[in-house]
Structures are given as C-alpha cells and as structure tokens.
C-alpha cells in the first residue's frame, strides 16, 4: 500500500487538494520506488507507523 | 570616392599584385608577399601551415553539437499524489558525459567547461487513465524551476511536455519530477524522453 493510500485511509476527508506543492502534505519518491512524507502540515497527526522523511 | 591605382613607391606594395575583387595579400615568409585570390562564396579564410602562404579558403565547419538525449528502457510506476523523480537508464546520445545510466541516473549534470545557457525538454508519456491531473516540473539542484500541468484526457494516454532555458553552472544538475492524481499508481511509459542542448555561454 502506498503512503498516499495509507494516509487517506486514516483521514478519508483528505482530497487531492490537500496533497502536493499547494497542499498541506507532500509525498515524494526519489526515483527508487520508495515513497515517503516530505512535508506534513496537516492539522492532524501523522498516522501511526509513519514519519517525515525516509 | 575615386578608385584608382596607388602610385608605386620604392619598397611599397605594387597594386598590380591584386587582380580580382576580394583578393588579399599574405606573407609566405619574412617580407615576402603574395596574392591570395578570393575564395569561393561562403568560404572562410583558415590558417593552414601546410600551405605555402599559411592560409587557405575553406568551407566553415558546423559547430559541434553539445547535449544529451535520455530515455527509459521500462515504465516507471508513480504513486498517487506523490512527487516522483524520473530515472533515465538509456542514452540516445551524450556528447560530454552529462548523464550516467546507473549512478544518479535521474540527473543531467553540467560537465566541466560547459557552463552556460541550456535548453531542456522533456516529454512524459503517461499510461491510460481518465482521472485527475498530470504534472511535470524541472528542478535544478533540487529546486523547482518550471511546471507543466494538464488534466487527464477522457480516453487514451496523456503526454506532459515541458521545456525551459536555464543558465547553468558547472556541476549543476537538472532532473524531472512528476506527479499525478489518477486515484492510484500510474506508469510513466518507457518512451518518455529528457534531453538538453547547450545554447551558449
């Protein structure tokens, strides 16, 4: 399951607008197929078992 | 203006040395002058020590191309709403070691002696999906430079085309990062391309 899928399963109120450079959450993949949270500014906590960075 | 012969003086150049429009005078050695007849249209005077008078008319050589063109041998999966750095494991050409197919293969890095203005172009070919947006951006040394963002097409594959001119220093690296909101993972196809061309200092 991707980081995005885990996050929206935890917070189903999130939409596409909450992600990316204009949203409060940024997810990155440096090209190695490993996705990670690059920025978390959402008002709720990072889901259990996840962190900012790889 | 009056055109005529220059009176000869001792030690001067005889104007009769020149016979044709465009002729010039060159030296074959110390104080030894000869006529170099005008060359064919479009030719340029070029130094050549093998010639008796040290020069010759020659067709101008085209400037050597400097740049690279990269592609992929396989599709690359991108997770939904996740900014993904594109990797490039195949070179169509690479004139000056801009890229490595294995090490940091997402990057075009400006080699020694090649700093200046570059045209960068990328075509990102997405797999089929009718939902969300497709975005591509150039980043230099990790900082975003420019974006292209399109809506998914109702049918068929979408292609995100992005181009920019950047003034780059030696050692700068440029890569392509993409993002999509199809609602799930989506492939970037293998026939996507990333290329650069040196424009000048």
Query: What percent of the residues of chain A sit in helical stretches (DSSP H or I)?
Result: 10-25%
Q: Which geometry of chain A do the CA atoms define? A: globular
Chain-averaged pLDDT of chain A: 96
Structural class of chain B: mainly beta
Largest sheet descriptor of chain B: 5 strands, antiparallel
Q: Which outline of chain B best applies?
A: elongated
Cα-atom radius of gyration of chain A = 10 Å
Strand neighbour order, sheet with most strands of chain B? 8-5-16-10-13
Structure description:
The complex is a heterodimer of chains A (54) and B (201). Chain A has a two-stranded antiparallel sheet with strand order 1-2. Chain A has 1 helix and 2 strands; from the N terminus they run αββ. Helix content of chain A is 15%, strand content 20%. The longest helix of chain A has 8 residues, at 3-10. Chain B is mostly beta strands and 201 residues long. In chain B, 0% of the residues lie in helices and 47% in strands. In chain B, strand 1 (24-29) and strand 2 form a beta hairpin. The A-B interface holds A 2-5, 16, 19-21, 26-31, 33, 35, 38 and B 76-87, 105-106, 132-133, 135, 144, 179, 181, 185.
Topology readout:
The complex is a heterodimer of chains A (54) and B (201).
Chain A: H1 3-10, E1 25-29, E2 35-40
Antiparallel strand pairs in A: 1-2
Chain B: E1 24-29, E2 32-36, E3 44-47, E4 55-58, E5 67-71, E6 76-78, E7 82-85, E8 90-94, E9 108-109, E10 116-125, E11 133-140, E12 143-151, E13 159-168, E14 173-180, E15 186-188, E16 193-200
Antiparallel strand pairs in B: 1-2, 3-4, 5-8, 5-16, 6-15, 7-14, 9-14, 10-13, 10-16, 11-12, 11-14
């Amino acid at each position: 399951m991707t980081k995005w899928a885990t996050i929206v399963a935890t917070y189903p109120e999130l939409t596409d607008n909450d992600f990316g450079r204009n949203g409060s959450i940024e997810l990155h993949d440096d090209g190695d197929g490993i996705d990670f949270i690059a920025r978390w500014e959402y008002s709720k906590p990072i889901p259990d078992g996840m962190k900012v960075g790889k | 203006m009056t055109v005529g012969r220059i009176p000869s003086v001792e030690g001067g150049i005889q104007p009769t040395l020149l016979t044709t429009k465009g002729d010039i005078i060159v030296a074959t050695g110390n104080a030894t002058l000869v006529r170099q007849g005008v060359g064919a249209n479009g030719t340029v005077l070029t130094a050549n020590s093998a010639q008796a008078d040290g020069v010759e008319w020659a067709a101008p050589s085209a400037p050597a191309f400097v740049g690279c063109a990269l592609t992929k041998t396989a599709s690359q999966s991108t997770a939904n709403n996740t900014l993904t750095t594109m990797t490039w494991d195949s070179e169509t050409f690479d004139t000056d070691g801009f890229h490595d197919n294995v090490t940091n293969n997402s990057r075009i890095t400006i080699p020694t002696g090649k700093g200046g203005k570059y045209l960068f172009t990328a075509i990102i070919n997405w797999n089929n999906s009718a939902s969300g947006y497709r975005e591509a951006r150039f980043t230099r040394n990790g900082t975003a430079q420019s974006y292209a963002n399109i809506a998914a097409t109702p049918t068929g594959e979408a292609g995100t085309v992005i181009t920019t001119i950047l003034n780059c220093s030696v050692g700068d690296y440029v890569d392509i990062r993409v993002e999509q909101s199809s609602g799930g993972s989506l492939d970037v196809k293998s026939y996507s391309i990333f290329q650069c061309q040196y424009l000048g200092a």
